[in-house]
Fold these 4 entries.
Entry 1:
Amino acid sequence: MNILILGSGGREHAFAWKLNQSPKTNQLFIAPGNAGTALLGENVPLALNEFDEIANFVRANQIDMILVGPEAPLVDGIVDYFREATEFSKLKIIGPAKYGARLEGSKEFAKEFMMRNQVPTARFKSFTASTLTEGQSFLENLKPPYVLKADGLAGGKGVLILNDLEEAKLELKTMLVDAKFGAASSNVVIEEYLDGIEMSVFVLTDGANYQILPEAKDYKRIGEGDTGLNTGGMGAVSPVPFMNDQLEQRIKNKIVEPSVRGLKDEGIDYKGFLFIGLMIVDNEPFVIEYNVRMGDPETEVVMPRIKSDMVDHLIACADGTLDTSVVEFEQNAATTVMLVAEGYPEAYEKGKEMTGFDHLGDCIAFHAGTKMENGKILTNGGRILSISALGENFKDALAKSYRNADRIKYEGKYYRKDIGFDLMEY
Ligand code: AMP
Ligand code: GLY
């Protein structure tokens, strides 16, 4: 197989690392990729919203499979674009078509899908500028904290959790009337606050059958103790140590099964990853959100734990035979710690020279925001390097991630020293 991975982060490096181990992989291309993916395949400078250019590349390089990393091209309809052209009828493209991508692209669409398919989630109601007053009265009838969600994609910033009623009413107006998150907040979902512990499950589905991948917990805030601004993710742990048989069964029966059955019953063209963000309240799972792709940095802990051949699974996914392609994973643990740029997630500088790669040991350093220039590795993003490690348990893996995080040097290096802090009791 000639495979093209779309994206440039740690997730895509982890995919490239895993796919590169398969005997079925012939040529591997990553667009646009980073300094890490360049060691595993060929980086190609394609823009992810230029579908015609991607098609030209696919044609010229006899690409058999495209694995779409981030959500934006999916929400923009890259799968539909290739499905519509008969010349690409044999191309395997991993990701949902545009309609299914709305599970991530629209919170309201996702909530309505959950309601139709009896997937447990927080109670909600959605509002627009013309129903602002109703929205404000709805808030008055809820207990704090108040959860306000911009309907559309807002780069992970579109969710506000507020304790004060007046502030919540004002923010609702700012979102709906003053377009706080642009068009993304022209529709706002207000939902009940769920008090529990978060984790994520990852499902590979062909729209009818599915395989469950290792679960994970990520750390989204920039500051220790889960404080400060939201980021793309500062670290992750897999498995979650609070998992038990009962919870596992509930997640499968109450969340995964009805979600996949919903895709099938509603005839949704979905051959790809479904990332289900959960809140566990008293050992009961509720869906907080769907994403139509893998997580980053969750992929950096999920891929290292999978034993079986990911290319086989992706082929089965595209062919609709995932029931016979059993994902096997190790009973070990994986952790990752994200090294970021000073200032991230606000303004930060790029182009800092990185050193210390030769001193790494007993870890996998997945590049997130790096580039190679004149034989040097330079920082090229806010999230820079995701240091993953395996261990018998997560504490053991974390010690390795941290030992290696220390060995990488660049100006302005920052990382959270407390990944897994809330799991120590387990
Ligand atoms: P989302 O973008 O939907 O993942 O939301 C961002 C974050 O807000 C989540 O990771 C949760 O920490 C939090 N959150 C979202 N919805 C709720 C809810 N209904 N109750 C409590 N926390 C929530
Ligand atoms: N780490 C969260 C995400 O990928 O959305």
Entry 2:
Amino acid sequence: MFVVVGVSGGVAAYKSVHLVRLLILAGHEVHVIPTQDALRFVGLSTWESISRNPVTTSVHDDVAQVRHVALGRAADLVIVAPATANTLARMAAGLADNLLGTTLLATSAPVVVAPAMHTEMWLHPATQHNMATLRGRGVHVVGPGDGPLTGGDSGPGRMSEPEEILEAALAAVPGDADLAGLQVVVSAGGTREPIDPVRFLGNRSSGRQGVEVALAAARRGARVSLVAAHVDAQVLAEASRHPRVQITHAGTAMELRDAVVAAAVDADVIVMVAAVADYRVLKIADDKMSKQGQEGLTLDLIQNPDILAALVRERRPGRTIVGFAAESATGDELIEKGRAKRRRKGVDLLAVNEIGWDKGFETPDNELLILNASDDVVARVQGSKRDVANALWDAVVAVRDHTHPEKHSL
Ligand code: C5P
């Protein structure tokens, strides 16, 4: 999961260092947003080193990346710990003059606060009123506990322990981040094989399905390496903003192979959605070819390596490999063609697509069936490419649970 930890200025900030550590150990991506005051208690370098991510307090840093809203949008969960009386009041009022404030307004993720303050401040009607407002908006509250406070006094106001905050925070997240901790590689789009400086052999793949597969994995908690072959910037837009998606561009089949192989080094799952050219031109002309008389033109082609089959041959234990097959067939013939291809490639799952002039490519919707390693049809899916992507990940999770449950980290 992508977790934002807001830290406001209370001495309990030191306990949040441990909270961040627990989140990291559980495989989450953590971004800490301290307030200026919080940095008086625990410094920036501590947060950066413990969260393994850059930390800033200002809405004016990283403006081009729209950081003031980007973290909030990307978050699956926001925790504010410690939440001081001041920060809780600011949240209740919707103030947004620091990065934590803008992030809290920009997020639609569950928000969990762990209040920490002296008993009088906690019990003050203003604070209690703010808490009622926040609860009314669906903010989850953990603690405060009753116990010794900084000044030697004792009473309600003590921030809950990091383990308790973590448990409450994870319980607040709807659904499950069932791919958290997994490293995933997805290829998308279609390769282009040059003929001369201006012409190429290509295909109609828009890359939409591959991008949806990548995004669905990222939303479900995976870290995704997306290798994109000629995918429009518009189709890539959301993926390029997602902090857990890293995009590499590839033009030809050979470039795609190199990019996928490099990204695959520590991959738990590889999904080859890209339409890879089976052939490339043997001799690419240095100059633009011109028409020669009335004769036809013959191009000599050579076969490209089958990237998917090679990935299967060289796979390490625990890795799940998924292929896509676009076939001009229907019904039983489609299933049989799919089964033959699955066996040829040796993949764990094969998504089989019926394609035609107006089916499969360049469309917002898709329809496919998924074959497993026993050649059973484990799913038939029809719907938006996003729905199809999620159904595919459901099938991946089922395969991993079945074959190597210990690899399926949560
Ligand atoms: O054999 P076919 O091209 O139908 O196989 C499709 C599947 O194989 C897709 O997952 C595609 O990404 C992959 N592929 C590949 N290398 C190739 C051709 C296809 O990895 N040269």
Entry 3:
Amino acid sequence: MSEAKRIDGKAFAAGLRARVGEAVAELKAAHGFTPGLAVVLVGDDPASQVYVRNKGKMTREAGMVSFEHKLPADTPEAEVIQLVETLNADPSVHGILCQLPLPSHIDEKKVVETIDPAKDVDGLTPVSAGRLILGQKGLVPCTPLGTVMLAKDQLGDLTGLHTVVIGRSILVGKPVAQLFLNENCTVTMAHSRTRDLAAVCRSADILVAAVGVPHLVQGSWVKPGACVLDVGINRVPAPEKGEGGTKLVGDVDFDAALPVAGSITPVPGGIGPMTIACLLRNTVEAACAMAGVPLPDVLN
Ligand code: NAP
């Protein structure tokens, strides 16, 4: 039996970041401004610290300005909101991202809603979500955007294909379903209450798993030849790495799906790397919109 094509998200994301770099250089030369991304991190969650460090590094590598605001875990909510308001008013900041989750004493919704929609490069404000539903131009959440980009790179025109999205979160499931709908797919959203999930999945030309349950999707759930996009990132024990060893796996049983699918993203190295690349792309888009100049062709 032939194997599915492994979709190399790491390479695609590196290419996108290189194009962001070209666009930044072009904007500097032609219009004299440099896109700037501000990241707000509250507390010392180790995973969030790694994400923020990587975001800062890749922002600088793309020739953009990185503003990093690291606040202690006990920072009062009002202070975080005050910082976001200051960043909203700063003309050198074109994108604002609050690293989630925030400590429990802070109302995430309130903080996110403070972000100026023009600088909402994470696409999470109600205005950005509304624009996405209404089919208006706006900033789109990064992981969903990266997921659709990889699907289009694999399959070209997605018109008429049946996309099944497992997961209905605000962060991934809902926006990714909307983006596939905007590509003229027929979209089914599945979740924890879906009946006969296996049968629903088997009807998918494009299967997106955004659940957070390791290896939920089995090989027999995949339609032969389908494009499988695994958004899940789950840390599981890996005894082969010695005592206490762990590894990352997706929501799809990769080895079981490989002989059935037409193409499939691995975890790690599939959807994951697309998130930061799309964040940088969104920051350039936000900066261009603010400056009233078109997005450089290299990013279209
Ligand atoms: P979430 O907010 O916990 O949402 C999970 C969704 O999965 C919910 O809609 C839930 O349904 C559904 N679900 C849970 N168990 C299910 C089951 N047994 N069968 C069917 N559906 C089930 O998670 P999220 O933020 O969307 O993240 C999902 C995964 O993507 C996580 O592994 C996360 O780490 C990963 N992720 C990766 C990236 C990246 O690649 N950069 C970015 C974001 C998230 P109900 O709504 O019915 O509860």
Entry 4:
Amino acid sequence: MSASPTPPAGDSSPEALAATLDPARRSWVPSANAPDTDFPIQNLPFCVFRRDGEAPRVGVAIGEEIVDVSAALARGLLHGEALPAAEACRESTLNALMALGRLPARALRTQLSELLRAGGPGEELRATLAPALLVSQHAVELLLPATVGDYTDFYASVHHATNVGRMFRPDNPLLPNYKWVPIGYHGRASSLVVSGTPVHRPEGQRKGPNDAEPSVGPSRSLDYELEVAAWVGPGNALGTTIPLAEADAHLFGLSLLNDWSARDLQAWEYQPLGPFLAKNFASTVSPFIVTLDALEPFRAPIAARADGDPAPLPYLDDGHDRARGGFALTLEVWLCTARMRTGGEPAVRLSRGSFLDLYWSMGQMLTHHASNGCNLRPGDVLGSGTVSGAKSGTQGCLLELTKRAAEPITLPNGETRGFLQDGDEVVLTGYAEAPGAVRIGFGRCAGVVR
Ligand code: MN
């Protein structure tokens, strides 16, 4: 089938990018114009999806639909500067696209925006195009969008670090290195799973403060951690570094991340080398990657350092990062227990926090990671660490919200939770809002405890 279409315009120029973010822009895909959609035409996040029995394909979310990028390429709708990125989307993961860098991916995004906008060339061909190009998000399986070679988890919220430190070390909650060095540990890439994958309660060694010896069994303190995942775009060669001024060029985009944590295993095993089996049994990521281009209107400074705190060392300080290193995201955690599902009750929101409430920016974390010459690769995941604020109701895990189960939460149906029970579903959501911009969202990052 050939539609002999007029190819849409769109390149990587600042003007073309600005046009994709124009709040007046609407799509001929009706669901993209719903006021509460996470995926208006201003977003266009990348994903990988699979129809029944077919190979995985790269897509871009629009409203309730996904654009099949290879189908658009095959119909001659992507051309010129967008061609390299469109060809990279023939792969079954996003790694090849991530490796190309910001400008090729931007050219592809601007052409797709032109194709999908109301009043553009795509609308003229809507009747012939839509069946070949669009697939419902509800009719496909969404996959992990990239092959993740390495996953690193940071600890960038000073509020989380202080609250947790106080429980483990009441006299010495925040260790002296915290305000100098972005703290992180190497996580496990093999157990990163996509939203919707059930999470099995881990077994392990548990030893309470009054136990003479540890015992082995299912974790009694299973928790979630509300985090943001940054996906690495182009990497750096072993032995080279990434200056902070260039960090944005190495970040492909952001997703939501739930760093499931077994607190009893963690308390017993974490010294002296840090998290291990308490963390690596599962980490859930949301399937849609919101690009830095789509997040452009939501860049902002991260929270100011307190008076008396040290200034970042020179390699972690940059004017652009100081002014725009943060992302104005609102992040929420929702819980639905098995009993709530059976009773038809809606999920309840446990917390709402801001991604600007961090001590270190994603750029500072990326630059620090490569500062010793460690090579980052396309598709690597950098977790932000649990996003918690200073105020009540902004804490991004149960450990903090319930003070290690000492102050359990009472749910609307009378159930209580100190930590997670089997059958509990945890859903993370996130969205970006700013004056003069259309709200964009991240979709869901969900998992049920088995
Ligand atoms: Mn974590």
